[in-house]
## 1
Amino acid sequence: MVQHLTSTSILKAWEAGVGRRPLDRGLTLLWAAGVSGDLAALPLTERDRGLLQLRAATFGRELEAQAVCPDCGEVLGLELDADALARALPEMTDEVVGVGDDEILLRPLTSRDLAAVVAVPTPDVPAALRARATGGEWFPPALVPEIDARLEAREAEGELTTQLTCTECSTVWTEVLDVVALVWAEVEATALRLVGEVAELAAAFGWAERDILELSVVRRQTYLRIARGG
Ligand SMILES: [Zn+2]
């Protein structure tokens, strides 16, 4: 069950994730929210669903994002609904697909799979992911392109996309939402703001970081106003 992030856990998540790869940051956020179990083994869709639920519980469901037109560079503002996006993600389970005369079991990819191929040279990544998703089974070379295409299509189904039209040049494109990056950016911005508020209140009143973070938002903002002479 995804909990919301408190001020204390936002700082904890940011501190743990700031020097790490984007791949690890998504899992760090879920860990900071108290999600237990082997998080690296979650299908990527479940990771993203957890992050969107966490986002809605912490900051509310209305989510503003930006997309850049691939043609002219215009920046478009997007208004999204984190709860609706979480519900839109498909349930990914092991699936038996027919390829040629064979039936092949495809397992949904996980964060651990992506981490395992980080150091793999780009041309070899499809083979490495195929091996992980199929349990290392050997396939006749003639079947490989179709297996890879099925795997790619299946993972694409698990991506959140939105069709956009540029307001400047009318280019139409499909934007893939990077859920980890979206939620991480908000957590990082909030963490940096919190650090600034702690520094201000500690300087003004001599309070400890832990006590300041435990203040409700309303109380903290009121003390900040007082500290600023308002
Ligand atoms: Zn454009």
Note: The chain is about 50% helix and 15% strand.
## 2
Amino acid sequence: MQGRDRSLRWIVLSVAVACAPALAGTPEHIDPVIKKMMTDVSRERLESDVRTLVGFGTRQTESATDHPTRGIGAARRWIQAEFEKIAATTGGRMTVSLDSYTDAPPSRRITKPVEIVNVVATLKGAQPESADRIYVVSGHYDSICSDPTDSECDAPGANDDASGVAAVLEAARVLSTHEFDATIVFAAVAAEEQGLYGSKHLAEGYKSRGANIAGMLTNDIVGNSLSQLGVRDDKHVRVFSEGVPEIETPDQARMRLATGSENDAPARQLARFVDECCAKYVDGFDVELMFRRDRLMRGGDHTSFSRAGFPAVRLTEINEDYRHQHQNVREEDGVRYGDFPEFVDFDYLSNVTRTNVAALASLAKAPARPTNVQIVLDKLAPTTTIAWEKNTESDLAGYELVWRATSAPTWQGFEPVGQTHHVTVDRSKDNYFFGVRAIDRDGFRSVVTFAQPHRK
Ligand SMILES: [Zn+2]
């Protein structure tokens, strides 16, 4: 009887969610405080920050560190001062630090010993059982011109990646006025263009300290809405995520082949979460999920975090214009080359920033994603039994089971299951993918943990 009731409920939910495709896998829970944050994001401050960063002339990794107004040293001192201004208003909840090293191995793009410095602001979580759960958001503040080793050329880097750094600074301003359960780290990272040196150091540092980096978003090239072919799209941002973990073990590879879970790495669940947050909070703006870890054959600062074993995704504009990336400032056949602020769409950058704010606030207010979510395989059965470990948060309200067809890109339906830690449903594990997420008493939902089989 109970089983039949449940099947009926599945059907009712399936019909109801079909009406709202953007949120099909999530109930409509709009938090008024996060909604208000959307109007706190300032286009004017974003533009001012991008122009200030461009004003340092070049932020190339080997450029001047001692000049007061030109070069990477002046740029990072300004970023540090901006973070410190924000931190000063938080009553000690936000702290600012430099994560630096000088012994980067020489390479094609690092020609001399150089100090690589990440500027990091940490907004400490307020819930004791969640404060050590960390979400990182980054942009890279270094820039380059056509020759990556040229430290003298002008390299304005307005879109690549002053836009990302400005988004991080503005997210810090908006989010720091609120309190969250988990910790949020705002990072302006260095030497991305030389080979991800800054983010690698940051990610490996977290890994060596055993830090719980529950999610990482990098913002890189997030300010231009006009493609090189003249097509404007100011309504979408791409979110790239790996479907198979970079650090997959041979055992995990065998399980992936046996279950068809090549679309379900933790980073992909994070990307789906960002997509849902954007749909809920950012009016007239959408995430375009990209089912690859980066653009074709490319990488970014999220790659450093993926390699350290953390779920990480990349936000990038939908259409790029390569005449304004990594180019010497010049005019050729009537075309202006160079990465200038006039090619940045600051309304577009505002919406990308809102997407970050909505996602980070939702992540840091929500419980941790459930652990050890397992499909129990004790016998062949037409039902599916899923078990998981209990969360530790004091304000936990329960869990939701989510599911989707094997060919569906995003979660299609959900079922509240209460304060249990196992459930059996009348759906075939052969025909559906399942996941579980935790919910707190305020209705905040965690990222989904994908359910994998466990053999007894
Ligand atoms: Zn970049």
Note: The radius of gyration is 22 Å.
## 3
Amino acid sequence: MKVSYSKVDTYNTCPFLYKLKYIEHLEPKDDLSPSNPLFIGTACHEGIETRDVEKAVESYKSHFDEITSEHEVEIEKIKSIVPKAIEQIPDCEFYEYKLDVPDEFVGYIDGLVKVDEGLYDLLDFKTSNNISGYKTSPQVHIYKYYFERLTENKVRDLYYVFIPKSAIKLNEDLSNVKEITDELKSRDIHFEKIDFDKQQVNYFFARKSLLEKETNFQKRYSSKCNWCQLRKFCKTNGADRSELK
Ligand code: SF4
């Protein structure tokens, strides 16, 4: 069975959610709000990879037919933080490096910085302030394991690289945009160095193995239900399918 890190992570969070997403292929309609974190994260990745703020802005704009004043706010935020990311994140030899093992695993390493011949630092970019939430994630451990298994190279250090989001809430009349962009300009990119832990890789394989044998896909209620994209479908058997793709 071919899995990604996200598939096993989703199964870990809730087997029923895994079934809805990956077996029944139910997905909520695209969130086209100006602050969609997926669009902003992708734009930041584009800016870091191309070392070009305008490319980040183009990436963000490409998701919308019309750019309103609310979109302009998000563009100002991108213009405030991406130059800092370009300045502080070292240029990588590889971006979006594909890890592909037939019938087993697929994943993409955000960035690989060459430190010596055959030796790299592995970066995973997160557009988030939730450092404690991510630093225990097994993702970079799995990526190091597969990168070293699939190539002749070694990974020296692992980092989650946090591109900060503003902690200031935008006023409804958009009157505090400058305060927000000034705050973002004052923030640094945070590099969280992670010590490699083989136990994390073993745990991943144990969960993958459970997933392969799973037949019940039971609901696992937790605080994560509050952010579950498919919770409406989960809680009411006759969910409104117009909210799904
Ligand atoms: S709402 Fe909770 S229990 Fe239901 S699918 Fe989502 S994560 Fe699972």
Note: The chain has a mean pLDDT of 93.
## 4
Amino acid sequence: MCNNPLKPEPYKITNIIRDTEFEWTFAIDFSGEIKAGQFFQVSLPRVGEMPISVSNMRGGLEMTIRKTGKVSGYVFDLEAGDNIFLRGPYGTSFPIDDYKGKHLVIMAGGSGSAPVRPIIEHFYYNSDEITSMDIILGFRIPDLILFKDDIKKWSKKFNTVLTVDNPDDSWTGKVGLGTKYVGDIDFSDAENMAVVIVGPPVMIGFCVREFTSRNVKNEQITVSMERRMACGIGKCGRCKINDKYICQDGPIFRYDEAVNLID
Ligand SMILES: Cc1cc2nc3c(=O)[nH]c(=O)nc-3n(C[C@H](O)[C@H](O)[C@H](O)COP(=O)(O)OP(=O)(O)OC[C@H]3O[C@@H](n4cnc5c(N)ncnc54)[C@H](O)[C@@H]3O)c2cc1C
Ligand code: FES
């Protein structure tokens, strides 16, 4: 029998949460082992494939998909009860064990809040494993805010900053880029800090500087890298930068390893 590692398998969509107009969270009946930060190759027959991060693992797999093009467009036509095709999970994961005993800071922009959600959820339910956690989440406009109910829940336990770049008349919360709020964090124990930054490459660079200028070292920072992918398993070279395959050596990297990979 041919054991093809590229063959996707069908899984049932159990629920669809319409977070925003163009970003929906798909709950999928998948029961294998998954780690925070990993991704699946999500596909539909005769349409195509796309890499999508895991946005929740508690009580089942969830993935939050932005409608940007061909495959995601077709996925938005699916309904609960329909099948979606998956390969994975693939790639490296956030080093949750290394964060234990530390002051954890999570910083994410836009859809970058999807891959960090499983880390936050883990420590929400296991808060004795860390000394404290600061969460900074930035979105372009209020209508693009993801995981509103979770953010309310997290803010009851952790210092949680939710900020938008461009507020509308109804917005009464914080305004400006997430970097504006890094200075409000307590850096007195900077050497015991672990920082997670997920967002567009330009955001990562600016955020890293906010931390390194306050005595946090590159090796204390974890980032997630996005690249166009095809096979997802280190065979085709589509995602290769220098000697690294982002699909296999990443997408989660320590910043001292990622610094030469970011454009
Ligand atoms: C490891 C990884 C994790 C990802 N996680 C998520 C996620 O959780 N949710 C989500 O919505 N998207 C995620 N993406 C991005 C997602 O894979 C692309 O948006 C997707 O391929 C679009 O497929 P499509 O056929 O709908 O769009 P296409 O028709 O292929 O493309 C639409 C537009 O998106 C651009 N694009 C496609 N892929 C990428 C990419 N990797 N980086 C930047 N621009 C891209 C194209 O250039 C084009 O402009 C992730 C990508 C990677 C590599
Ligand atoms: S996507 Fe094929 S090698 Fe990474």
Note: DSSP finds six helices and 15 strands in the chain.
